């Protein structure tokens, strides 16, 4: 596959490791130098490196962390000042759920961002194009949604990101600008891979855990507790949990969530509408350098 075909036409930013990653690299170099200078202390040097790897692994399990690189967890201040929030939906498109989500959004004039799985977009191209036609965004949520994504090496992670880009662009004609990792989990390799694909990592401000919680009331409470302008909210139109009556939780929650947004004077926009200037995107990219 051509890497050129999977990237945006915008120039890719030069990747710069976060301060935390630079510190980790310095620690590794120092341990290696120490092992050469004082080989008898090799257990201590090994323990130091092992401890650092444990910290890196732990940080990768924190979806909202910025220690491994820039991570969008809230909209820019200008978007918050406009009363904007971002509704985001993961793991679709799903022909049994997504069309009903689109109808609910249309009914109140809300716009959303759908982090879609590339292979699902390929299976349901008409539905993917319908998402775009109605004014929403489709962004990259990997090619096949592997549960072990955060444990992948350079090659496997690169293929998931690049193939997701290719499949979505092939169907929609637009190259994604944002990426969301599976369950938000990642390792230190992801940040430079995203930079090569001209992608920004996007997590969330709050989530309802609607893939495993069958209670719409609890999911809604998690999403609306301390809800404020600038929040990024995570729901799922794919892999949605079902209520005791068999209804996808997201379809029960969404009308109430939209009503709550309206009552608070908030309105949902796409991520690109909220981050609509290159200056804001540059700020996001460099927030943790």
Q: Main beta sheet, described?
A: 6 strands, parallel
Tell me the overall shape: globular
Q: Determine the strand fraction and express it as a percent band.
A: 5-15%
- The CATH topology of the largest domain, please? TIM Barrel
**Tell me, what is the CATH class of the largest domain?**
Alpha Beta
Distance between the amino and carboxyl termini? 31 Å
**Name given to the CATH homologous superfamily of the largest domain:** Glycoside hydrolase/deacetylase
Overall residue-averaged pLDDT value = 87
Characterise the protein shown here:
- The protein has 289 residues and is α/β, with parallel strands linked by helices.
- The protein has 2 domains: 19-60; 77-285, Alpha-Beta Barrel (TIM Barrel).
- It is built from 13 helices and 8 strands.
- It has helices at 3-6, 19-37, 42-60, 77-81, 98-108, 118-123, 125-133, 154-172, 190-196, 216-224, 249-263, 271-274, 278-285; strands at 84-90, 112-116, 137-140, 178-179, 200-201, 206-207, 232-236, 267-268.
- The strands form 2 sheets. Strands 1, 2, 3, 6, 7 and 8 form a 6-stranded parallel β-sheet that branches.
- Strand 4 (178-179), helix 9 (190-196) and strand 5 (200-201) form a beta-alpha-beta unit.
- Helix 10 runs parallel beside helix 11 (249-263).
- The protein is globular, with a radius of gyration of 20 Å.
């Amino acid at each position: 596959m051509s890497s050129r075909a999977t990237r945006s036409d915008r120039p890719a930013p030069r990747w710069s490791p976060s301060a935390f990653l630079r510190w980790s690299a310095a620690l590794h170099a120092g341990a290696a130098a120490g092992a050469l200078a004082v080989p008898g202390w090799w257990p201590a040097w090994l323990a130091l490196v092992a401890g650092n790897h444990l910290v890196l692994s732990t940080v990768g399990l924190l979806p909202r962390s910025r220690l491994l690189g820039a991570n969008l967890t809230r909209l820019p201040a200008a978007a918050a000042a406009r009363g904007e929030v971002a509704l985001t939906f993961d793991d679709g498109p799903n022909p049994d759920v997504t069309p009903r989500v689109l109808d609910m959004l249309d009914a109140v004039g809300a716009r959303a961002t759908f982090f879609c799985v590339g292979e699902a977009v390929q299976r349901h191209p008409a539905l993917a194009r319908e998402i775009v036609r109605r004014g929403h965004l489709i962004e990259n949520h990997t090619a096949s949604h592997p549960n072990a994504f955060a444990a992948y090496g350079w090659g496997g992670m690169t293929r998931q990101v690049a193939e997701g880009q290719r499949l979505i662009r092939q169907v929609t004609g637009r190259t994604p600008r944002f990426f969301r990792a599976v369950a938000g989990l990642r390792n230190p390799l992801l940040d430079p891979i995203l930079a090569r694909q001209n992608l920004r990592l996007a997590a969330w401000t709050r989530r309802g855990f609607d893939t495993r919680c069958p209670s719409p009331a609890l999911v809604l409470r998690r999403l609306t507790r301390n809800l404020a302008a600038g929040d990024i909210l995570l729901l799922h139109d794919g892999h949605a949990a079902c209520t005791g009556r068999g209804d996808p939780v997201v379809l029960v929650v969404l009308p109430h969530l939209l009503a709550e947004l309206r009552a608070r004077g908030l309105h949902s926009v796409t991520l690109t509408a909220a981050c609509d200037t290159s200056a804001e995107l540059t700020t996001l990219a460099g927030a943790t350098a």
